Amino acid sequence: QVQLVEAGGGLVQAGGSLRLSCTASGRTVTSLGMGWFRQAPGKEREFVAGIVRGGDNAWYADSVKGRFTISRDNAKNTVYLQMSSLQPEDTAVYYCAATNILTGAYTYWGQGTQVTVSS
User: Mean pLDDT for the chain?
Assistant: First the structure.
């Protein structure tokens, strides 16, 4: 079993930056893909960014490409999301997720951290 705990959310002005972190416990996540999702009020949860287990390949939603960067430190069992040029539409609860080693589906989820961008 994997437990994920996010940190780093908060209130920031438009154009600002934040870095989210997600630390795993229970088992190592070095063999798992990791990702970030977000859910804004009244909207479905959406994919933001994903990274392979080795950290050498990542992909992004079009809405954040060029502004957000996902990375991981397997020695610390931690994945990060560096967010820059934040806009009010980035306001959401951000969730960290880890994949199932057999299916590759995002199976393990954190509790979420709130990011609010003011205009």
Answer: 94
